[in-house]
Write a sequence for this structure.
């Protein structure tokens, strides 16, 4: 018999969080207490905010149902490891629909995981390789959880940062929010050294360190971190954007299914517009992504294509093709 009431309540709660109805007699047997004690413990859980529903009958039953608020969960070891691994996998690759809330959940869970479970999570993560589309940058989950913890705790964050031109620097910031665009994670923060708001690509952040110094959040000019990031990206696009025009020897539907959405949507070319009658399409869009990245994505498509403009992209495709051809040529001198 479990005489420790708090421990017995946690055990009872763990049982009730399994999606099924528990007869009172079975709960009493599991806990090795009387049915009267089970009824008292159920009342205590209700007082703590857990919505336990009772059913009438010869034996009576109990079920935990949805309430107005989210009460604390009780997880066993296997459940905790499974959730942590799932959150790490999603957060590390900035998958569509996995946003800041998931990172906050991961940060909270890893903060309370016992050392033995943290080791299991890390071991499983290191032993698996996810198959991703390659369109987004991979990020160490530890980086996201450190940043998320400083955002939630209003704690100054120091980290190394590699700019687009490759220049390395150290930054001391007041982190405001993490924002996911689906392909990438960004940190919106006040840069103390530069005395202004900045956005940082998290895949370029290294060695994040929570300083322990608390701060009072400043008022963001746009009021919304997502809106601030959107304006920041648009400003960069206006200065670095270029337009490309590419034709493919395949139907638009086929190309669209294999081309990342961020590269644009192709349209079929009719015979009157110069099509070859065998199903071809044309893509005209704009981007600020590096030419090399666009060339690689086009090469991975798996069909013939022709770059009409810009000239710089044409040259980049030729250079990539030559490099691949040389890499695949046999060593005639060996």
């Amino acid at each position: 018999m479990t005489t420790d009431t708090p421990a017995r309540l946690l055990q009872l709660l763990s049982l009730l969080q399994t999606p099924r109805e528990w007869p009172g007699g079975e709960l009493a047997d599991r806990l090795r207490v009387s049915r009267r004690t089970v009824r008292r413990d159920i009342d205590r859980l209700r007082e703590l905010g857990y919505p336990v529903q009772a059913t009438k009958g010869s034996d009576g039953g109990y079920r935990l149902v949805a309430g107005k608020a989210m009460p604390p969960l009780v997880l066993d070891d296997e459940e905790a490891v499974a959730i942590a691994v799932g959150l790490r996998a999603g957060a590390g690759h900035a998958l569509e629909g996995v946003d800041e809330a998931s990172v906050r959940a991961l940060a909270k869970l890893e903060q309370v995981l016992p050392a033995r479970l943290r080791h299991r999570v890390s071991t499983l993560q290191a032993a698996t390789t996810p198959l991703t589309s390659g369109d987004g940058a991979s990020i160490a989950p530890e980086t996201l959880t450190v940043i998320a913890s400083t955002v939630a705790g209003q704690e100054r964050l120091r980290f190394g940062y590699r700019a687009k031109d490759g220049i390395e620097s150290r930054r001391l910031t007041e982190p405001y929010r993490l924002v996911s665009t689906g392909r990438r994670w960004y940190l919106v923060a006040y840069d103390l050294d530069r005395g202004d708001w900045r956005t940082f690509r998290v895949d370029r952040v290294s060695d994040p360190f929570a300083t322990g110094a608390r701060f009072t959040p400043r008022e963001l000019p746009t009021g919304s971190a997502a809106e601030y990031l959107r304006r920041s990206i648009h400003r960069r696009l206006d200065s670095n954007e270029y337009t490309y025009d590419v034709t493919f020897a395949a139907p638009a539907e086929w190309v669209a299914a294999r081309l990342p959405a961020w590269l644009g949507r192709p349209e079929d070319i009719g015979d009157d517009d110069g099509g070859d009658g065998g199903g071809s399409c044309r893509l005209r869009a704009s981007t600020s992504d590096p030419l090399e990245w666009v060339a690689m994505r086009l090469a991975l498509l798996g069909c013939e294509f022709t770059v009409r403009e810009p000239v710089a992209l044409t040259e980049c495709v030729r250079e990539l093709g030559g490099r691949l051809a040389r890499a695949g040529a046999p060593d005639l001198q060996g």
Remarks:
- The chain has eleven helices and twelve strands.
- The radius of gyration is 28 Å.
- The longest strand covers residues 168-180.
